[in-house]
TrEMBL record, chain A:
<dbReference type="InterPro" id="IPR052157">
    <property type="entry name" value="BCAA_transport_permease"/>
</dbReference>
<keyword id="KW-0029">Amino-acid transport</keyword>
<dbReference type="GO" id="GO:0006865">
    <property type="term" value="P:amino acid transport"/>
</dbReference>
<keyword id="KW-1133">Transmembrane helix</keyword>
<keyword id="KW-0812">Transmembrane</keyword>
<dbReference type="GO" id="GO:0005886">
    <property type="term" value="C:plasma membrane"/>
</dbReference>
<feature type="transmembrane region" description="Helical">
    <location>
        <begin position="256"/>
        <end position="277"/>
    </location>
</feature>
<feature type="transmembrane region" description="Helical">
    <location>
        <begin position="94"/>
        <end position="112"/>
    </location>
</feature>
<protein>
    <submittedName>
        <fullName>Inner-membrane translocator</fullName>
    </submittedName>
</protein>
<keyword id="KW-0813">Transport</keyword>
<feature type="transmembrane region" description="Helical">
    <location>
        <begin position="60"/>
        <end position="82"/>
    </location>
</feature>
<feature type="transmembrane region" description="Helical">
    <location>
        <begin position="34"/>
        <end position="54"/>
    </location>
</feature>
<comment type="similarity">
    <text>Belongs to the binding-protein-dependent transport system permease family. LivHM subfamily.</text>
</comment>
<dbReference type="InterPro" id="IPR001851">
    <property type="entry name" value="ABC_transp_permease"/>
</dbReference>
<keyword id="KW-1003">Cell membrane</keyword>
<keyword id="KW-0472">Membrane</keyword>
<feature type="transmembrane region" description="Helical">
    <location>
        <begin position="187"/>
        <end position="209"/>
    </location>
</feature>
Length: 288, 240
C-alpha cells in the first residue's frame, strides 16, 4: 500500500511538471496555431536562472521568482521581435522555434558546461513526510501545491477576466474575435508571456526535485509536454491538466509494476490510442 | 474612378480578392446609402460573402473602401470594426464554448455604449438563457445571439450575411421583424437568399455575378421585374 501511495504522489509530482510546461504550450497552439518548440528553451533558461540566483543569494524563492520573470520577458521578446512576422506560416515558425531551442541550449552548454549543476535547496525540501507509511519527499508536495495554485489562478483568469474571455474565444475562432473589434495580438503576447513564465517555473521546479539543473532538461520534458498537449486536446487548458495527471501516474505505475522503460512505452501507446479514437484529444473540440 | 453619390455611407471601388488560385472578386464597386438596407444579391459563388469579408479585411484585398469619407481599406480588421461596423457572419460563428452572457460581454466594444435594453427587447429569449453555452442553443437562437453581438455597440453600419440560412419559416419571420427594427437605427448591408426577406427590408440592391457587380439600383425595381430576377438571380419572385 505504501509503495502505491509513494508512486501516486511522485506520479502527481511528475504530472505537475508536465502540466506547467504543457498548459502554456497548449494555449499558444490553440490561440496562435504555433507549435512552439522554443518552449523547452524557456524551461532550461528558467532552471539556470534559478541556479544563478540561488548560487548568488542562497534564496530559492528569489531564484524561482526571477526565473519566472526572465521566462516571461524572453517569451514576450521572442513573440514580438521574431514570431509575430510569421503567423500563418507554419514551416518558418517550426524552423525558428526549433532553431531557438537548439541555439539557447547550446548557449547554456557553452556558458555553464555540459555537466549537471547542483541546485542548493532548503534542507526541509529534501526531507520526507510519511503518509500511511509511505515516505514522500517534501519537494514533491511543493511541486504539486504549486501546480494546483497555478491551475486555480489560471482557471480564474480565463473565466473571470476580459483577456481570459478573449483567449478562450480566440482558441475557438480567432478571426471572429478580430471581427468583434478586438486586437488579438495583445492576447497573443500575453499568452506567450504566461507560457514562458510557466515553462521557466517548471524548469526551476524540475531543478528542485532533481537537486540539479542540466542543459538537456528542457528538451526531454518538452517531448512529454507535447504528448500531454495532444492527449488533453490542443488549446484546452483543462485538457492539459487532465492529461498531465494521466500521463504522470501511468508512467510511474508502469515503470514500477512493469519493466524498466515501460512508462515511456505506455504513454506513447496511449497517445496512439487517443489519436485513433479521439483525434481532438480528451477535452479538445473536433474540427468543424 | 466613379464618384460616390450624395448621402453615401460606404463606397467600394475596385475591390479585388484572391483566394488561393481563384480571383474571387474582380473589381467590385458599389455605394451604400446612409440609412435603410442595401441587399447584396447574386447566385451561389458570386462573391457576396467574400465581399463582406473583404470589406472587413478578413481576407487579403485590394481596392478602396471608403466609410463616411475615410479610407479603411488598409486598416486591420479590428480597426475597421472599431470605426463602427458590426458583422454578423454566415453560419453565425458564435463562440460555442462561451455562455450567452460571455459572448455578449466579449462583444462589448470599449468606448461605445452597450445597448443591452435594445438587444433584450428584440431577442427576449437571450435574456432567459444568459448562463447557457451558445453551442447548445438552437440555430435560431444562435442567429439571435450573432445579431445581438452586432447590435450591442454604437455601429454605423452592419454587415449581415445570410441570417435566414437554415431557419424555420416562423423564425425567419421573427428575424425579419427584428432586422426591420434594427434598420431604423443603423444602415445595413444584407446578403440574403430569401427574397421575401429582401423584399420586406431592402431599399437598394446590388447584384454580383462571378466576382463583378452586374446590376445596382432600387430593390423594388429589381424584385418587381421578373425578367431581371430570372436573369441575375435565377429565380422568380412572388408578388408581395
Amino acid at each position: 500500500m505504501s509503495t502505491f501511495i509513494l508512486l501516486t504522489v511522485t506520479g502527481l509530482g511528475l504530472a505537475a511538471l508536465y502540466f506547467l510546461v504543457a498548459s502554456g504550450l497548449s494555449l499558444i497552439y490553440g490561440l496562435m496555431d504555433v507549435l512552439n518548440f522554443a518552449h523547452g528553451a524557456f524551461l532550461t533558461l528558467g532552471a539556470y536562472t534559478a541556479w544563478v540566483v540561488v548560487d548568488a543569494t542562497g534564496s530559492l524563492l528569489l531564484g524561482v521568482a526571477v526565473a519566472i520573470a526572465v521566462g516571461a520577458v524572453l517569451a514576450v521578446l521572442m513573440e514580438t521581435a521574431l514570431l509575430r512576422r510569421m503567423y500563418g506560416s507554419h514551416v518558418p515558425q517550426v524552423l525558428l522555434t526549433v532553431g531557438l531551442l537548439l541555439a539557447i541550449t547550446a548557449l547554456i552548454r557553452s556558458i555553464f558546461g555540459t555537466d549537471a549543476l547542483q541546485l542548493a535547496t532548503p534542507e526541509w525540501m529534501n526531507e520526507v513526510t510519511e503518509i500511511l507509511g509511505a515516505p514522500i519527499p517534501n519537494n514533491r508536495f511543493v511541486l504539486i501545491v504549486t501546480a494546483v495554485l497555478v491551475y486555480l489562478a489560471m482557471s480564474a483568469f480565463l473565466a473571470k477576466t476580459r483577456y481570459g474571455l478573449i483567449i478562450r474565444a480566440g482558441v475557438e475562432n480567432r478571426a471572429m474575435v478580430t471581427a468583434l473589434g478586438i486586437d488579438v495580438r495583445r492576447a497573443f503576447t500575453l499568452v506567450f508571456a504566461i507560457g514562458g513564465a510557466l515553462a521557466a517555473l517548471a524548469g526551476a521546479l524540475a531543478g528542485v526535485i532533481n537537486n540539479a539543473v542540466s542543459p538537456e532538461q528542457g528538451m526531454s520534458l518538452l517531448i512529454f509536454a507535447f504528448i500531454v498537449v495532444i492527449i488533453g486536446g490542443l488549446g484546452s487548458f483543462r485538457g492539459s491538466a487532465l492529461a498531465a495527471v494521466l500521463v504522470g501516474l501511468l508512467q510511474q505505475y508502469a515503470n514500477f509494476y512493469g519493466a524498466v522503460g515501460a512508462g515511456d512505452l505506455i504513454v506513447v501507446l496511449m497517445l496512439a490510442a487517443i489519436l485513433l479514437v479521439r483525434p481532438q484529444g480528451l477535452l479538445g473540440r473536433a474540427a468543424s | 474612378m466613379t464618384k460616390a453619390t450624395e448621402g453615401t455611407m460606404l463606397s467600394v471601388r475596385g475591390l479585388h480578392v484572391h483566394l488561393g488560385e481563384s480571383h474571387v472578386l474582380q473589381g467590385v464597386s458599389f455605394d451604400v446609402r446612409a440609412g435603410g438596407v442595401t441587399a447584396l444579391l447574386g447566385r451561389n459563388g458570386a462573391g457576396k460573402t467574400t465581399t463582406m469579408r473583404g470589406l472587413l479585411g478578413l481576407v487579403p484585398r485590394r481596392g478602396e473602401v471608403i466609410l463616411d469619407g475615410e479610407d479603411i481599406s488598409r486598416l486591420p480588421t479590428h480597426e475597421v470594426v472599431r470605426r463602427g461596423i458590426g458583422y454578423v457572419p454566415e453560419n453565425r460563428e458564435v463562440f460555442a464554448g462561451l455562455t450567452v452572457q460571455e459572448n455578449l460581454r466579449l462583444a462589448e466594444r470599449p468606448g461605445s455604449r452597450h445597448h443591452y435594453d435594445l438587444v433584450y427587447e428584440l431577442f427576449p429569449r437571450l435574456k432567459e438563457r444568459l448562463k447557457q453555452r451558445a453551442g447548445t442553443m438552437s440555430g435560431g437562437e444562435q442567429q439571435m445571439l450573432a445579431l445581438a453581438r452586432a447590435l450591442l455597440n454604437d455601429n454605423r453600419l452592419l454587415l449581415i450575411d445570410e441570417p435566414s440560412q437554415g431557419l424555420a419559416p416562423y423564425l425567419v419571420a421573427e428575424l425579419t421583424e427584428a432586422l426591420a427594427r434594427a434598420a431604423e437605427l443603423v444602415t445595413i448591408v444584407l446578403v440574403e437568399q430569401n427574397l421575401r426577406m429582401v423584399q420586406r427590408l431592402a431599399r437598394d440592391a446590388v447584384v454580383l455575378d462571378q466576382g463583378r457587380v452586374v446590376w445596382s439600383g432600387g430593390a423594388a425595381d429589381l424584385l418587381g421585374d421578373g425578367e431581371l430576377t430570372r436573369q441575375y438571380l435565377g429565380v422568380g419572385v412572388a408578388k408581395a
